[in-house]
Predict the structure.
Amino acid sequence: MPAATSIVTTAKRIPWKRVLLVAQLVYVKGSAASKALTPAERQRLLDLVKKSQGRPSNLTEKERARVRELAGKALVAARRA
């Protein structure tokens, strides 16, 4: 498992459009991205993406950071698969 700091660093570099694409990947059953997140993390990601309505400005800074963190975690797993 990668260090938490490397996941956060990777996540901060991801453009918002890619964050949303990775979030969609999480919901493809059986994908490595989906398996990388717990059910609670997948639900939180879904809730935040819905709240954002595609616009990062609709989220607080903390929420944007959480979306990026979860997307980064899923992206790292998908790249390893």
